[in-house]
Amino acid sequence: MPLPLAGIRVLELARILAGPWAGQLLADLGAEVIKVERPGAGDDTRGWGPPFMKGADGADIGAAYFHATNRGKRSVAVDFETEDGQKVIRALAARTDVVIENFKVGGLAKYGLDYESLAKDNPRLVYCSVTGFGQDGPYAPRAGYDYLVQGMGGLMDLTGQPDGEPQKVGVAFADIFTGLYATVGILAALRRRESTGKGGRVDMALLDTQVSVLANQAMNYLASGVAPHRMGNAHPNIVPYQVFPASDGHLIVAVGNDGQFARFCTAIGAPELALDPRHHTNAGRVANRDELTAAIAALTATFTRDDLLARLEKAGVPAGPINTVAQVFEDPQVIHRGLKTQLKEAGGGMVPAVGSPIVIDGQRMVSPCASPRLGADTQAVLTLLEQVCARR
């Protein structure tokens, strides 16, 4: 079966993370993604190490960070600050389906590479702009960074211990979510093009995305007028749904309904907790959170982590360990699902990679090829353009 996006060509004028993440996902789904990089240096993340990686031929192939978000692409080294470089990009854009860019608002207009300019020659073009704050509004001219947006968008104020400082998430949350939403927007615009024959512009902003994924926390505020606050590992709407101590570590308990709560109490040797009228419903358990969770913690601390996890699994109560990243890739379910994979690299060897989570008809949607070496496809793409122009 052909891959879902076979035949779709994407021109990626993006670097760092949010834009390239969208490009990588499209490549995983079968699109041809041509990544345009600066000659000499390339994408900034090629140098964002250590750790750095080497090919089988001993060549330096860039930082692990770069390889996290650029698999399956072709690399063209073109300086579009020059007239010749601009001609190349315009020629490619005229023969492509999607452009992804993450320059400041208006940053590509001076080169004639903005949506309005490129759409004149290719009205079917879907043009996705990824910025910190969107194409309009008082913050539109600002540069956007994931860390700043996690703070501005409310996430950091919700993350961390109540008596501690605000915390960012351990990965670039706003960037990655923006890349995912950008992919959805691009696919929607491509689907609309099937009926209208016209492309369009997808305007993605990190701050928009961060605010939109506040999810239940945002609705808690909008419904009550009370701003939520940091609660450590506790859940604002469900009890018990947090980290609890064991005698040799910690575990997560995620009780989602009243039946699970009754089974949980029996498993930890305290069925009377479930019989208490204050705990019959989740609303009651939330109202009596502090007293209840203190009682639970005293009980869970008498078990070893693995013993308690086994008891809870047998009882049908959702619970789990808190793994290091190393333990994640040793987990039997992660191994079985093939999330750690090896991709072919241009030097003839293989490099490790994390597979896409999308599985269609039993096939994991992950490109078989590793991230490209800088400028590896420049000559091939230029030759193709020359041949196309010669036939016209």
Approximately how much helix is present in the residues? 25-40%
Q: Unreliable runs, pLDDT <50, ≥5 residues?
A: none
Number of strands: 15
Most strands sheet: 6 strands, parallel
User: Could you tell me the mean pLDDT?
Assistant: 96
Figure out the total of helices. Answer: 16
Rg from Cα: 25 Å
Order of neighbouring strands in the sheet with most strands = 5-2-1-6-7-8
What is the end-to-end distance?
33 Å
Alpha-beta classification: alpha/beta
Using the alpha-carbon principal axes, give the shape: elongated
Tell me what portion of residues adopts beta-strand conformation: 15-25%
Gist?
This protein is of the alpha/beta class.
Structure characterization notes:
The protein is an alpha/beta fold and 392 residues long. The chain is built from 16 helices and 15 strands. The chain has helices at residues 18-28, 64-67, 83-93, 115-121, 146-152, 173-196, 206-212, 215-224, 258-267, 271-275, 282-287, 289-300, 305-315, 325-328, 332-337, 378-391, and strands at residues 9-13, 32-37, 52-54, 60-63, 73-77, 98-101, 126-131, 200-205, 241-246, 249-254, 319-320, 340-344, 350-354, 359-360, 363-364. The strands form 5 sheets. A 6-stranded parallel β-sheet has the order 5-2-1-6-7-8, with helices on both faces.
